């Protein structure tokens, strides 16, 4: 059941979504953000859901479906995995996804990605995957991935729509606009392949310093902000042969 508040939000800040077709002759990369146990598996950590969540399950299913299609086609895939050191908190969030723990591993449905030759795994220690791809020598794993594969479009999904996904999208689009990511042209956020966490107001009131974070509201806001930065928002993703001249 959709709440009256959600209806009002969609009325006041509507999002025009589109059906996106990925063509064989346009190099497209798939980026999966943060689909780890610590964010997705019930009871797996401080930031994990406390009970089964249908929206998280849908995001995982859609991510697995797309990942398998990309791997069948040998198209490039990059997965960002949160991996933090216990002495370096990521404020304002509690300690989570500590390196070497199961929290910091891909969810079971995606662990097969680690053995695929077209997949790049990047363990990051900050919210923004673009910044989290920077190496000590100043190079950037994500930038190198785009350029090495000559990626013209990126399809992105994962968790959280309004946090890690949004930060990555904004940084990537800014870098594209400054000519740092040639030949990248398009950034597509797949709405069914993204999700955010749920912290209702009545729960947040009992947690010191917590901000309410209603799941469906904030998912919509994250998509709206991404579109405002220049991303396409896709309600459907399909594959097709080469574009007609």
From TrEMBL:
Tell me which stretches of the chain form a coiled coil. Answer: none
Looking up CDD domains in the UniProt record yields: cysteine_hydrolases (cd00431)
Q: Mention one GO biological process in which this protein takes part, according to its record.
A: pyridine nucleotide salvage
Instruction: List the Pfam families.
Output: Isochorismatase
Q: Where is the Isochorismatase-like domain?
A: 29-203
GO molecular function ontology, one term from the record? nicotinamidase activity
Q: What is this protein called?
A: Isochorismatase-like domain-containing protein
Tell me what organism the protein belongs to: Carya illinoinensis (Pecan)
């Amino acid at each position: 059941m959709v709440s009256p508040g959600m209806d009002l939000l969609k009325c006041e800040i509507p999002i025009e979504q589109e059906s996106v077709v990925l063509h064989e002759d346009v190099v497209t990369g798939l980026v999966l953000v943060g689909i780890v146990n610590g964010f997705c598996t019930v009871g797996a950590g401080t930031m994990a859901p406390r009970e089964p969540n249908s929206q998280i399950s849908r995001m995982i299913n859609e991510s697995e479906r797309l990942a398998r299609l990309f791997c069948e086609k040998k198209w490039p895939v990059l997965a960002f995995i949160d991996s933090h050191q216990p002495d370096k908190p990521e404020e304002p969030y509690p300690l989570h996804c500590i390196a070497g723990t199961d929290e910091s591993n891909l969810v079971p449905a995606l662990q097969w990605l680690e053995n695929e030759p077209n997949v790049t795994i990047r363990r990051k220690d900050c919210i923004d995957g673009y910044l989290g791809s920077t190496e000590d020598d100043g190079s950037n794993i994500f930038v190198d991935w785009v350029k090495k594969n000559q990626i013209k479009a990126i399809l992105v999904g994962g968790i959280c729509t309004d946090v890690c996904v949004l930060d990555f999208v904004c940084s990537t689009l800014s870098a594209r606009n400054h000519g740092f990511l040639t030949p990248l042209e398009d950034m597509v956020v797949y709405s069914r392949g993204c999700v955010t966490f749920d912290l209702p107001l009545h729960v947040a009131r009992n947690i010191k310093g917590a901000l309410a974070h209603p799941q469906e509201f904030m998912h919509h806001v994250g998509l709206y902000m991404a579109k405002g930065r220049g991303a396409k928002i896709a309600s459907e993703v399909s594959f097709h042969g080469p574009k007609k001249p």
